[in-house]
Amino acid sequence: MTAGIPASENPVTHVARMPARAAGFAPWPEWSAPEVVAACTAAGVGNPWRHQVEAACLAHAGRHVVISTGTASGKSLAYQLPVLSGLARDAKTTALYLAPTKALGADQLRSVSTLDIPGVRAAAFDGDTPVTERDWVRAHANWVFSNPDMLHRGILSAHSRWAQFFRGLRYVVVDECHSYRGVFGSHVALLLRRLRRVAQYYGASPVFVLASATTAAPAEFASRLTGLPCSAVTEDASPRGARTIALWEPPLIEALSGENGAPVRRPAGAEAARILTELVVEGARSLAFVRSRRSAELTALGARRLLSEVDPSLTETVAAYRSGFLPEERRELEQALLSGRLLGVATTNALELGVDIAGLDAVVLAGYPGTLASFWQQSGRAGRSGDEALVVFVARDDPLDTYLVHHPQALLERPVETAVLDPANPYVLGPQLACAVAELPLTEPELAAFGGPAARAVLAELAEQKLLRRRTSGWYWTSRDRPHAEVGIRGSGGDQIAVVEADSGRMLGTVDPGSACFAVHPGAVYLHQGSSYVVDELDLETELALVHAEDPDWNTSPREIVDITVLSTERQCHHNGVTVSLGEVAVTSQVVGYLRRRPSGEVLDHTALDLPEQRLQTRAVWYTVSAELLESPTGSGHSVGTGARVAGAEGPGATAQAGEPAGAAAHPVRAGNSRPAADEAAGEPTGTEARRAGTEMHPVGTEAHPAGNEARPAEAEAHPVKTETHPSEIETHPAGTEARPAETETHPAGTEAHRVKTEMHSGGAEVLPAEAEAHRAETRMRPVGTEAGIPVGTGIAGRAPGGAGLIPARVPGALHAAEHAAIGLLPLFATCDRWDIGGVSTAWHEDTGEATVFVHDGHPGGAGFADRGYAAIVPWLAATREAIVSCECPAGCPSCVQSPKCGNGNDPLDKAGAVAVLGTVLGALRQHGEKCGHGGT
Ligand SMILES: Nc1ncnc2c1ncn2[C@@H]1O[C@H](COP(=O)(O)OP(=O)(O)OP(=O)(O)O)[C@@H](O)[C@H]1O
């Protein structure tokens, strides 16, 4: 695969081999219904694997259980066996199956229906179920396949029509439960509590059977999600072929320079196309996972083009995942791959779930899929018993990907993360409690399931709003209208902005109101099911965005101004000049214009916009560094380029910063992003989504924004996020696309970027104890000290930390760069997408009185990400610093400190300064025994 690549450009940073595993069997449990065993055997499952039997027996015995094993390990049988046996034995028994996507639900329904067990009447009840069939399902189906959205709007809201179904409810299956994270996860957690309450009302207390990709602490997570004590089955006894995993960092392209003259790497999608070509030529059946549908098309196209040069007869063996796969199309694809008619398929993560493809020869992942669970789920598609399989992880231009290819242990040896959710978020609790009370009056003893005191406070507020009434016996819904339609469980709630095609009147999707100015501002490019639209008008009052179909060869990225205010500080620790805090903040932002950029990164123009200010009240983690510590020399006596100028530091903004440090406070640097960043697969069935890519017109740079369009480094297109918010289950794609940061335009700062290299010194690059090992690993892979001009191995464990040695003019760029990278790395600790979070950095903040870097949740009320950041502050910032140091670029590029969505055009950014600041902050935290946080995952 690396044939033809000069040794000096070898993109492979690490190779690992995972041994084969033999199957472990267990006998069919004696309680299994013979007809179920017969049907499974006929379907090819002769003997169940041990973990299947273990989980099935727990469920049968009435214990809530989560099965958390690898890809294609037969998790379905673990719940099918007890459920089907129960249904076959007792005519009154019923079961509910919930999937995060309609497609997965349809797949599972098909698999159950194929077994054709007498007495089992399985049926779907989702947005696609025709109204004429719904009555039949309610009256006759004994296994209902649905999704959380439909449970919320279509089942619980009208539970009396489901009385018979609820009376017999013995099992609730929650499939792919690890996808219930963030705000969506918090909603689903409360939704399941509502389900339990309603079931109880009809006299049922169902057993919950959850299936999950491998995650850390699955029992804990399942218990948090259901509110019930759950056992976990994690010993995977399915057979697996041996796999070789290669980590691949695309080389820098000499001839191209990006934003501010930064170097540019070969796009991961193009690299994946090349690898896929090689694999197809070798006759290997392969899947390439990319981050967006457009990228899937481009990758398949690229591979076909390359194949036409090598062996034209092979071009037809490569296909792209097409949007909106129907179950039959999935089956066709599975068959085509199985039979060898197709050898290579480029796909989004929509094929991660609900597809029975395993035992492939190779899987290519272009870009980190966001979570380790997804990484293993996708790479698990490769591996045939008896044969070697290959997994290639290709890094995108992104700090997290850079970190991972240089720290293989973080990818290959870390326990899979626990999904983060926060059912106590008042923004989620409020609407959920309103629905709960509207379903059935809520009594005092029931409060505990909804968070006790937090629920009480929210109920008091709802009572004040006259939505419900408090009586001695509990809380009662007063309105005749049900609140359900107003509550979007995949977003932050509130009235959604409808995105409508003006000509046809067709509703394409909905956008969260908080994201509308970013996602569907006038002029924005809006993607829906792979098609492109341009927004003509956004009317926030009538909650309408009018669009027309157009596929321009440019993307849009909004620019915004932003401010952040600390509302309360909940936790705080001080460490000699460094303070780390966790609390509530108000982020105000205003989209003031947008850039049109070509996919190459070339900026066409800037258009001003007049849109209202948005306010986001959420949670943030922030750290401050005293001026003394920033300026004082490093512990080793070296200064970090005192007097050095960073790229962009001479721009207008930087000059203002340099001259008036206090002025920086008025113009904080906004970084980050946000929004319900459900995986593409998660949003597959329906959904809306939006992304912000923010920007700021103020001197100091900005990164993203709550939900925005943004430049996606490798694919030059927006990263799809979806939210399921509408009963009709319309699927939408992230509004907006945006250019890749790899700008081809020449930037005056580009020349400066190289100057910085010679001015960097070792100071601030102190290596902290826990990082020493990482450094050693890194040293093995690349000669340290030749990268980025930043020597990295100078630290001494336990030494008193020094200052950052920065002159005031460098502080904004250093903090800005540290913030960009920190946002990129938080997903490693908080199971969020970098789009779920945002950030602001400033050389002086009026609430803290010091240089401050904020990283905040992008959802109202927070989704638990900032809390994870606080808990894992030391490993998080250490990884951030490592990611920057690992990148060989001289002065900052998208692989380390540049953000694709930086509103300020990544200016100023001071890579060496960021390393110095992070080294100093870590030094202070470590010196005080890491009392802040708990050390992370
Ligand atoms: N005991 C078994 N023996 C042989 N094949 C089995 C056994 N159990 C399941 N299978 C087969 O393994 C394949 C994968 O099963 P299934 O889809 O249930 O796995 P999964 O763990 O849910 O997969 P995913 O990781 O995609 O969610 C199916 O084709 C199924 O028929």
Automatic annotation (TrEMBL):
UniProt cross-references to SMART domains, sorted A to Z: DEXDc, HELICc
Superkingdom per UniProt: Bacteria
Recorded GO MF terms: 3'-5' DNA helicase activity; ATP binding; nucleic acid binding
Chain ranges of the Helicase ATP-binding domain: 56-214
Spans annotated as Disordered: 631-755
Pfam family, one: DEAD
InterPro entries found in the cross-reference section: DEAD/DEAH_box_helicase_dom (IPR011545), Helicase_ATP-bd (IPR014001), Helicase_C-like (IPR001650), Helicase_put_actinobac (IPR022307), HRQ1_WHD (IPR055227), MZB (IPR018973), P-loop_NTPase (IPR027417)
Amino acid composition bias (Low complexity), ranges on this chain: 647-666
UniProt cross-references to PANTHER family, sorted A to Z: ATP-DEPENDENT HELICASE HRQ1
Entry keyword annotation includes Zinc-finger: no
Name of this protein: DEAD/DEAH box helicase
Keywords in alphabetical order: ATP-binding, Helicase, Hydrolase, Nucleotide-binding
Residue stretches making up the Helicase C-terminal domain: 275-427
Composition bias type Basic and acidic residues, residue spans: 712-732, 740-755
Organism: Amycolatopsis panacis
Any single GO BP term: interstrand cross-link repair
Entries under NCBIfam families matching the protein: DECH_helic (TIGR03817)
